[in-house]
Amino acid sequence: MRRIATAALTADTQQLLASHIPVYEAADDAVARVLVSSLTEIPRRTPTGPGPWQDLGVTGYLCVPLTDRGQTFATVTLLSTGDHVFDGHTVALAEELARRAATAACNARQYTQRAALARDLQACLLLPELPTLPGAELATYYHPAGEGLQIGGDFYDVFSLEDGSWALMLGDVCGRGALAATTTALVRHTARAVASFLPGREAVVQAVNHALIKRHGSHGTGFVTLIYGHFTPTRTGLATELVRAGHTLPLHLTADGTHPVNSDGPLLGVLPGPRLVSRRINLAPGESLVLYTDGITEARNSANELFDEDRLTQALTPPPPRAPAVLDTLTAAVRAFTDSRHIDDDQAVLVLTATHLILECAATRAATRAWRARSTPLSSVVRRSPPR
Description:
Elements: H1 11-19, H2 30-37, H3 53-56, E1 58-68, E2 71-81, H4 88-124, E3 136-143, E4 154-160, E5 166-173, H5 178-194, H6 201-214, E6 224-234, E7 237-245, E8 251-254, E9 257-260, E10 278-283, E11 288-292, H7 294-297, H8 308-315, H9 323-338, E12 347-354, H10 356-374
Antiparallel strand pairs: 1-2, 3-12, 4-5, 5-6, 6-7, 7-10, 8-9, 8-11, 11-12
Helix pairs in contact: 5-6
């Protein structure tokens, strides 16, 4: 047991009361008795246990239980001084106060537990940590709508494939909560399971669509928007192929500006065998690919205006040179536009920046230094000819 708070009419009495360290396990302790009996205790006398009762002029006390579902978990103790006496009206008021305090404490506990559960489950649906990519730099952002009590429908993932390339995806599940979480898990795990065994990006997205259509009705029926792609480090940057299925347009950030990547594709989880098209993009060193959900472009300001695609493009023009800088610029622009208002939809962003040539030069220099350190000096392998 521990004391939560104290209050008094003056600063001096408040300090004196707060300085007292109670011993709740004492034989004559009202708090210990009320916690056991769950009954209000109203002695019209000074407490017998140790404490500053004489200095405070205490003549009586009222100890009221805080109970939730029949279980007493705390108490409120009121002290009377001088000629004041706790009458029936005061006791009823104290018990009503305790009842409301118990309800507030119960709600706060449930809120905290529910928020922790949502946070833990959401963390399981996102990357626990960003992988180290060859020839590339990665930055991600996720911000759920509301107060964090529900699992959001936005997700992203990056994972390696058997042939040395990498897969990435970012999507949005219709709805929120537990059903959205099951759909998110289905999409991510299906893509991870089949990506190394199917011949191309379109086949992987078709497999995801097939899994969505064949899912049990109790696991949700909402659609999914998705961008799925593979990228491979090359001597000229990152060779990237993307499939877009009903999602917002990716952005290609180059030295010339910010350009939408146009590619057609329908929603997933609605019709079997959707027509999907793969789009190839080469990211030169310093160029970036930005994937985002509609929570970014549909963020609203106080005038109810949308952030929209034009503002997003303007915010990233000229493009920052590195993935973290791109992400910071984008999120700062959204926060400034909305003035940190409550957001109505989840927001997710994934930024991929090519750095292959820079890394290759650094690796080459390191390898050369290592080779020189291991090599035998030239003077040690040159021998004089024997004299004639």
